[in-house]
Amino acid sequence: MQSASEQPAQPEHAYPDHWEADVVLRDGGTARIRPITADDADRLVGFYEHVSDESKYYRFFAPYPRLSAKDVHRFTHHDFVDRVGLAATVGDDFIATVRYDRIAPDGRPASAPADEAEVAFLVQDAHQGRGVASALLEHIAAVARERGIRRFAAEVLPANTKMIKVFTDAGYTQKRSFEDGSVRLHLDLEPTDRSLAVQRAREQRAESRSVQRLLAPGSVAVIGVGRAPGGVGRTVLRNLVAAGYRGTVHAVNKNLGEGPHTLEGAPACRRLADIGEPVDLAVVTVPADQVPAAVADCGEHGVRGLVVLSAGYAESGAEGRERQRALVRQARSYGMRIIGPNAFGIINTAESVRLNASLAPQMPAAGRIGLFAQSGAIGIALLAGLHRHGAGVSSFISAGNRADVSGNDLLQHWYDDPATDVVLLYLESIGNPRKFTRLARRTAAVKPVVVVKGARHSGSAPPGHRVPVTRVPYATVSALLRQAGVIRVDTITELVDTGLLLADQPLPAGPRVAILGNSESLGLLAYDACLTEGLRPQRPLDLTTGATPDGFRAALAAALADDGCDAVVVTAIPRVGEDGIGGTAGATGSEAGVPGGTGASGASGGVDVLAAALRSAVAAAPGPAKPVVVVHVEMGALAEALSAATRTRPSAGRPTDPTAALAVQPAPAVPSAPAAPQAVPATPPVPSASRVAGRKAATPEPAGPQDTAEPVAVPGAIPAYPAAERAVRALAEAVRYADWRRRSAADPGRVPEFDRIDEPGAADFIARVLRERDAHARGVTLDGDETADLLGRYGIRVLATLPAPGPDEAVRAAARLGFPVALKTTAPHLRHRPDLGGVRLDLATEGQLRTAYAELTEALGKPEELQPVVQAMVPRGVDTVVRAAIDPAVGAVLSFGLAGAPSELLGDMSHRLVPATDRDAADLVRSIRTAPLLFGWRGSAPVDTAALEELLLRVSRLVDDHPEVVALSLEPVVVAPRGLSVLGASVRLAPPPPSPVTDLGPRRLPSY
User: Fold this and answer.
1) Which of 205, 456, 849, 925 holds its CA 20 to 30 A away from the CA of 173?
2) Residues 6+ apart with CB under 8 A from 657
């Protein structure tokens, strides 16, 4: 322990504002971490007064009731290099502090190059157990590494078990000893796999908890409820009450008179302070200029989270954008998280919550789908679509401008949410793409994540979304999402179609598809659709138009029992009989044909029997479960029967046979949203997918006194689609996802360790170049020698290239390198253009070299225009290109393809996110269309793909270790049957991008 008098003052450096960060704590609340400055003296004294005597004793190893003036000066004056202090704040108050002092090996104060520091924490007792110290340790460790400190030393009393646990649980490599009655800890600050895993597990728990606090509040207040019917606030209040919210609801209107009031059956008051009990969630609907006062009122009242429906923020321009930033800063200063602004609202269908804090006029049915939409209009359309199809949701969030809570937070929550089996996301922008792909990969390993991306081709973010805009083609973005296991679809119709199948059906074991039905033509359409989607369909089984429900049941049962089939597509058209299309020909029950009037009221007993027959076949199928989808054409009655989302539990005397007809309750249409900012029109009817109860349905329970006629949700419905293409596309997405989950999720690969990597040396080299070149945001391109130097530090050897401004210089270069050589032009307009004849190979003598030089200059221009160079010849092979770049909206991307115009014209490049694993590298090489050229196409010798994969991994490691490497290109890379040669390389450096792009460093909330 160092006392206040032991350390002399040192010159101070500029305030490091990049160390400031908002973090989510263990309980879901937020705090701000920032450097402590000389202006914090009063805050520090006030903070210390609220610390217990026991905590003070643990900090100073002796009774220490108050800080002296010398203590306060020392703890608030730092040089931000050798002495650093950080504080965690809520509002304007400190709740915890941490500091380090650089020390020499003998424990005395020191300066660089000493690389050890003593660290100490102090957390207010009221905030202990919230994970504040763990968050501070992450940030102070990152600061220390930035300042060249590699180890922390800490001295802790044995009784201070909480602090010891903070250090031991952090995951860093550490040593512990017991000296002079205290525990001495030494932590190596180099991140380890365990420390990273600990950090991300804490991040997940904290962010998931913060979302849970929003979705399951014990009490809700709606701020801005009008006294007269209508308006946004009154609408939300009415929806909350109508949904049967299990907590307490309050209405707030500052214009109400004194005395008790009720609005929509809920108690109403003028101020939050008048409520007299805690409020967990506030729904803010007042105009934007009144929101700051409402947020301050919420913060003072201890509200935990906000849903801000008010518009007039970033979507309205620069002034609104600044207003939005101020809103986030204000809410976080009170430890609150925000959904919105300009949001549509949130819904939680859990029976213990039943929260509808949104503009959706009806509470959706409970289901297993988690739904996130950035757009309110799309959100209401998706809710209406799922409702029509008989599907329910576990929770729904429409985040509007998503200034705080985003799709990343919902992925953290849904990852281990037992009520959610499928995640559907409508995204218009991705604020932290690297974190998104990390979270999506982890979530997709346990449950499907389906994404439709809006604004794909506009080249700009939607209004209100202050995020980086991608420079890579959407096909590349799509490939990167698929690498992370995300099911990427193009339309909201496909989003619903795919979600329905994944929510109710098992994943297919493979791509083999059986097709059966009563129409040969519809079966062939399904067959062609399967081939288009890359599936392996069997020849369709035509049951003929006279097929009965029993015939369907038998055919489906046989298909499900067939070991050669992984999924089944059932097609159905109206029966053509003597009474016309859809007539029953007088048959009833199981003898009926496949009836089905096309109107909304055309349902009949025969349709119910067909639905029951399909359910029976699925329920009785032996062996592993297989997905089943139904394609119907012009059979409104069948679609309506299959869309049954509720059933009645069998009561006494009712049959429990699965073939028994089930009660059908048509789902009511969702009316349009009420007039409000961003009012949403009613969703027009569209051809819909529907569902019939199937494999996942629970076995009916025996009748008993507790049985009632109340409908309960039917799990495991069979989705039905009005077009073969829609059904097969959804099935194909399930097949591809299941394949990814078996291969990549089960074994994602590893990032191997290589020798000949000098990470510290490369870091010093990069820092020196950026400093000497005074590089701005646009960066600097390295010259040839610098490029070879940097790449060489990662074991990547670039073939020497010698300039040849004249024929004599070319001959001297060849003599230095050794014949045979290659002569190349490097002018920008000729680079990588072998079709123009700017390359001469296998020049074995001086005469051949001089002749080639003369031919080049005669055909293409003067030497000063061509910029000729000489290189030694390398073994022949396949010319390839390796690139890496940091895209502002995607993150670091590793790309591979064959060199040359054909691949460039066809866009035949494969892409993976950095850091790439050994599996990613292998997939990169094999996923381009021209990959057969690498593996012995038409009798050619296979090339050394192992060496190529190692090169890809070394490039990935370089870019991952040093985000200052914003662009890198190796072209061409000649891959021979044994080994490879990098003939050309270029590297561009720039100051590292902001952390939301890199997803590096300690956890922090984004700021836009």
Assistant:
1) 205
2) none
